[in-house]
Structures are given as structure tokens and as C-alpha cells.
């Protein structure tokens, strides 16, 4: 029996349905999306980023309660903040907000289209780009969908019996028992009993289960239970089980069946057919149309699914289906409980193989009937596709290869800046595990943009500091992201009661005290994105996950928050590679089967790899094993972690297990120095990989003498320039190390300051490629190696701790509260606002004033403010020494102090969360502060404030 390669590869087939960027630019000349020419001076572009590099915002049109004047006013706010564009996003009106008398509009109504025209034209006039979300909320859906067009799930139920006995069960009771706890539940779904099997509690063969499908239409079902313990398996097809999450009027209601091609085409055409007659070609209006997180919450069925499975896989699904499915829980996750029959080891293997075939069929149908249809529709309408192409229905990396602008997501969490834990993919991390998959797919297919829904915040709303925002954004870039879509900007008129209309986190909001400083991060991100978009991200290690094994055992995961990491350290390996100075991409079976091997290098499209690391992978297609064998034979280095491949996927793959095993085994025997087995990690993963790097002779881009799990890097090339972004994502710890860069010795190291666009020569540590790199908390450095050797020299801040003088005299404190009140007090000593009853609810600008007497100007080079919670500005004798919004608050005084008495003023701008939390009856306070169990957070200047030489 032959496993058809065409079907196996269909998931990864690349249909580049997006139109060329040059064509889109010609259609929409108001937006320069073309890639920068290599002839252009990258530094000049870095200093003054173009629109493509500037972060965009998701612009929530709350309830579509929008008016023209306010749309234009908000575009002015965004322009002033330095953003490059907006994603127009119709969404349900927040349940915490007062709509006042603003009218709610239906999606695609004439009045909504009129507002859309105003927004698009207003954005063009301001040089801002417009994207638009497809539909409203997520996933696609609407009130107008018929039953046949609504999403479907084949859901599992079980019930235990002990025989012998004859029992009657009510069909309605069985239907009622299958009721998954889903988000945005439709209260009136359609339910049909579809499969009925009675199986022994210990099951060796599906044929041992009694087929009771002939009884599924009976109201009262009589069961003859044989002697012993048995399990009744019943499958319920549920249609229209969920509504759109936060859908606005007109695009609310049941979710669309994404496995129904005709329904998908109809839904897409609803938007284009409404827009074209009134606003013209979509390509002249929008850069891209966006598809948000799918979150279909268990959707796995369509009317012809069984027939398609049988045709594609070559055997009948029906006898096996009840046994390969998991019970469905929240967000479509398998529920965590024991149920059903106990399978023999032989049956368990069969079930896992068939489960893989089921998941494969599901992804094939989804690709053909939704993703490909969407990509074709985008091409027909002259817009780019921008898609968060991951979840239970997409291949996590291959799906991104066919999308014009692949997108992932990076979340704001309360643990931002904490240590990264081993054998975990959550703690301390803001990027989602899927980010690296999406970025890899983009790079493998030559995409310039890797977009990201960034600083998504549902956890620390109103308490996000500028430092947290920077740490989150830096981690996003380390995962391969090069463009930010900020989540988000709430449409909120000035007359809306405090704090305004809030869908999610209020980052860019005029009522937020830190709003005036948000433009600093915007400018910082735009300069970094210039480097990352125009340079080539270097990765010479291909990293392969055991996805087939994961899907076979546990089904496809709900990315970006997978239920399982398999193995438990799988998502930590890429981190360790980068933390040790290397670079990697994830590769898939499709990529390996279509790559070329020569002279020890593995090439796919624009990517070239010197090493392939296979992480605990047991199952792969024989063609993949053959490709790996060819790479080994060409001189390539392959490292098998933990185990070597020994199985082929799917039920029909069982006959080819030996072929996979023998192919790899023979390659290892023939080329033992090229094919290496290495044990799985048991301790610290950072150290484990450092040892592997040394023993396997893997040369990193940066040789780091003291790697840290809190410091990572990513390497880009632009022409002759070598650009290294190095970031410390710890909010409390500093780290320094010696680094030897793998660059030409004829080049000189420069530090490019992404905050202000300046550049200076970086001091070397002997040879021109050897540098000492100190990083304070939350600090990052962009180091660029260039042939240019002349310029201003960069000085590393080195205060003399021995000369430190602590300012311990009382501080005059002026409190300018965001509610408009003011107050002056005297602090005998510095305190954390959260620990003082009177200060704990403060939000706004706190101004500290003191004087310092200088007797020796040589001992007054720096002022260290110590621990500061908030954005701070230092003013010495009436002159500003600058604003600091993250990390160390050490100021170089540069002659601002004089002998004798000096005035010191320190302005601290805090977040608004503690104040919002004090509002006992405010609905947003109840939902976002009390409902999320947010504590009272630290605010103010804690010190010690020290003057140093």
C-alpha cells in the first residue's frame, strides 16, 4: 500500500496567491510598500523610517458608534504619535461603556460605508495606511447565515454501563449530555445524533464495538448491554454552536463554516460587493484585508467530510471515528478527564495513526475551502492578505508561506520581565510559541513582512508601563517579528465617561498619563523594524519539531496557546540557540522534501542551513527521511535529539515504518560523523545546548562567554552591514558578557541608537570583532559592523560607586492627579506609593524637588535615581537632562551641575491603574482591575538617589 505523497504534501503546497507588491503600489500610490533598494543608505532610512516600518494600530470601532469628526480627530492623534497605519476593526460595543447618544451602525450598511470612506480618505491625507478586518470580531460570521452555512462540530460523548442488562436511553438526553463549554456560545444550536457504538471497557479492535447507528433516529433507544463493563460512544453533530466573539451588528450571530467553500465565497463577496460600488476598488483603499485568530473552538466537520476522508485516505473513517476524537472543552480544547474504553497497545497505535489522517484531512479541506479561497479573493480585489494562520486548522509554519503578510501575536502579561523557565513556553515569555513558526514560514518563502498583533493586553489593563511595553516588543522582535500591529487603539469620543470606551488595553489613549511618551516607543520600534524588514535575517540551523507525533497523540493544538508541548522542552530549543549566539528557523516535512542538498548545505528558497536538528521525532514520511539522508550524504550535519525516526505517518504508513527506520539507520552507519545522536536535556536547557554546540562543532554568529536565559539576540545582514540586535528582557537583572562576532575583521562596530537615530563607534575588546557588552535591566543594543571607521565614540556609562553621595534630605512632592486635582506634600524619605495609604490611588504626574550642594565637580558626573516606577524626566537647574522610560535611571549630567547649590526636579509620570482600581462603582474598574485580581502596583521614585563621579 502506498501513502500518496501528493496528498501528504498538499498541506504544505505553496500557492502564492498574493499579487506583487509593485503592482499594489501602482494601484495605491499613497502608500510606499516597496522594499528599500539595497543602494539606499540603511542608516538614513534608520534615522527617518518610512511608513512600512512604523507600527500600526488596531483601531477598534466600538459598536460602530462612530462619527466623521471624531474619526478624523483620532487619526490626527495617531499621526502625532508616529504610527504608520490603522487596521479598521468593527467590534461589539464594550459592556462596560456608556454609549451616550451615539448611533450603532450595521457592518456594510450605507451609513457604515460612509464612515469607512471618511476614515480611508482621512488616513490618506495624513499619510497613514489602512488595513481592514474581514467581518467583525472573530471568527467570521453573521446574523444572515443559513443553517447550511454555519460552523459544524462532530462532538464526542460517552456513558458507562455494566451488563448484563437491557436499558432504555432517551435520545434527547444524549444530545443534552454533549454540550461543550465554549466561549461565545450560541444558545440555539442544531444537534443531530450521528454515531452510536457500544464498546467493551477494554477494547482491542474497533470491530469489537457494536454498531448501533440504525438506532440514532429513535426517540427511545434500547440497549442490550452484554456482561461486563461497557462504554456507549455517541457522536453529536452540532451546527451553529458558537457566535462570533465580540461581533459588531451586521457581522454578529453564528460563525461561518470555514469548510464550506460556497459559504466562504459568499461571505467574502459580501464585503467587496458592498465596498466597490460606493468606495471603488479595494486595492486603492486598503493595503491588506486581515483575518484574526481563528478560534473555531472545535470545528472539525462539514457535510461531505466523511466522503472526502474516505476518498483522500483510501479507507473508511466511520468504523474508527468515535475512538479517535477527544471530548471537547473550553476553546475547543480536549477536556482533561478519564473517559471511554481502555485501548490495547495495538489499537492505541492504530487510533493515533487514524487521528493523524483525520487531522490531515481537516487541514487539507480547510486550506482548499477557506485559505485558498481567501487568498484568491484578495488577489481579485487587489489587496494583500494578512492572516494569523495558526490554530487547529492550519499548519503552523507552512500556512504562512502562502500569505502576503503572515501574522503572529505577542501578549502583555503581568510576568513580563521575569525569568524564563525551562520546560515551559509561558512564564516570562511574551511572544507566543507560534511566533517562531510564523516567522520561519515567512522567511522560507521570502516574505519581507512578519506582522504581529503586539502588546495584546487583557491582563494588566490600565497598568501597562512603558518598560513592560518595551520588554514585550523586544521579545517579539527576537522571535522574528519585524512589524507591529498594536493591540490596540479604542475609538472613544472625548465626552465618553472616564476612562472612555475600552475594548482592551488603553495604550494609546489621551486619558492615560503615559500617553505622551508612547511616541518614544513608536519611534524606537520603527527604527528597529527598518533594520529587520530590509535586512536578511540570518539563520544557519534548521530545527524540526515532532509535529506528526504531537498531532497523532494529542491532535492539532490550539495555537497560539497549545495545550501540549511535545516534548515538554520543544519550544525552548530555539531560545537556547539564539541565547548562545546562533540563529535558526523551523522547517517542515514539506520544506525538507523540496529542499536541495549540496556541499554540506541545505537550501530552500532564500534560506541556507548548515545544520539540521531533529527534536525527538519518531514519525516522518519516507520522502522526508530520504531528503535527510541525501543531506547527510552531501556532507550536511544532522543531530537527532533523544531518538531517531522510525515510523511513517497515518494508517497506511504502517507498511512503510521499516523504510523510514532503515533510511535513517543506513545514513547514520555510512556517515557517522555527519549524523549524530544527542541526549535530550535533563537540566538547564541553555547549558545543554551550549554543550551540544561545542561537541557538535556548531559555529554561532556570536561566541558568548557567559550566555544568559534573560539575554538573546538576532542577526540581520543588509549588503555589507552586519546588524545584531541584543536584548536583556529581565526587568531587574543586569548582565554583561564578552562577545566575539563572526564578521570580517576589516569592519568596525557601531552602536545605532534606535531611540534617537544616532550612531557612535563601539569600543572594542582587542580585535575589531571582540566587544564587551554590558546590559542593564530591559536594555537592548543594536550593534552594526560597517567598513566605515570614523565617527564619534560611544562611552559606556561607568559611575564610580565609591564616590556615591546619597541625597537624603526631605523631598518636596507635587501631585498632579489625572482627575485634575493637585496636592503638595513633603516626604521625609522616598516611599513606594503603593505602601502609602494617601498615595496608593494616585495616577498622574508626581514632581519631586530637592537641592544638592556640589563641592567637587569631578564627583558629580552622574545622577542615579535608583528604582523608579514610571516615566521620569530629570531637570537640573532648569535644564532637562532627558526622559527615561525603562531600565536604569542613571543620567549623565554633562556639566549641568555647578559648584554650590543646585536645583533638582524629577517628574515621574505613572500609570492609571491604581486610580482606576479605587473607583468602586466604575464598570471598567470592576471588570479589568477587580475582575482580573490586579493588585495595587508600585509607583513613584523609590531611590536611593545618588550623585556619583
What would you say this structure looks like, in words?
The chain has 21 helices and 43 strands. The strands form ten sheets. An eight-stranded parallel β-barrel has the order 1-2-3-9-11-12-13-14, surrounded by five helices. A six-stranded antiparallel β-sheet has the order 15-25-26-31-28-29. Strands 34-33-35-41-38-39 form a six-stranded antiparallel β-sheet, with no helix packed on it. The protein is globular, with a radius of gyration of 30 Å.
- Uncertain runs are 1-36
| Rg calc | 30 Å
Helical fraction equals 10-25%
- The number of distinct β-strands equals 43
Distance between the termini: 79 Å
Our estimate of the beta-strand percent is 25-35%
Major pleated sheet? 8 strands, parallel, barrel
| Number of contiguous helices | 21
Structural class: alpha/beta
Instruction: Calculate the mean pLDDT score and round it.
Output: 94
Q: What gross morphology would you assign?
A: globular
Strand order of the largest sheet: 1-2-3-9-11-12-13-14
Question: How are the secondary structure elements laid out?
Answer:
Layout: H1 5-10, H2 21-27, H3 42-47, E1 56-62, H4 68-81, E2 85-91, H5 110-125, E3 129-133, E4 152-170, H6 171-177, E5 190-200, E6 202-203, E7 210-211, E8 220-239, H7 261-279, E9 288-291, H8 305-313, H9 321-324, E10 342-343, H10 345-380, E11 384-387, E12 405-411, H11 434-444, E13 451-456, H12 466-478, E14 483-490, H13 518-534, E15 536-537, E16 541-544, H14 547-554, H15 573-579, E17 584-586, H16 589-593, E18 596-598, E19 601-604, E20 607-609, E21 611-615, H17 622-633, E22 637-641, H18 657-670, E23 675-678, H19 685-695, E24 702-704, E25 711-718, E26 721-728, E27 735-741, E28 748-752, E29 759-761, E30 770-775, E31 780-786, E32 805-806, E33 811-817, E34 822-827, E35 844-854, E36 862-864, E37 867-869, E38 871-876, E39 879-884, E40 890-892, E41 900-909, H20 913-917, H21 923-930, E42 940-943, E43 946-948
Parallel strand pairs: 1-2, 1-14, 2-3, 3-9, 6-10, 9-11, 11-12, 12-13, 13-14, 16-17, 16-21, 21-22, 22-23
Antiparallel strand pairs: 4-8, 5-7, 5-8, 15-25, 18-19, 19-20, 24-27, 25-26, 26-31, 27-30, 28-29, 28-31, 32-43, 33-34, 33-35, 35-41, 36-40, 36-43, 37-42, 38-39, 38-41
Helix pairs in contact: 4-5, 7-10, 8-10, 10-14, 12-13, 15-19, 17-18
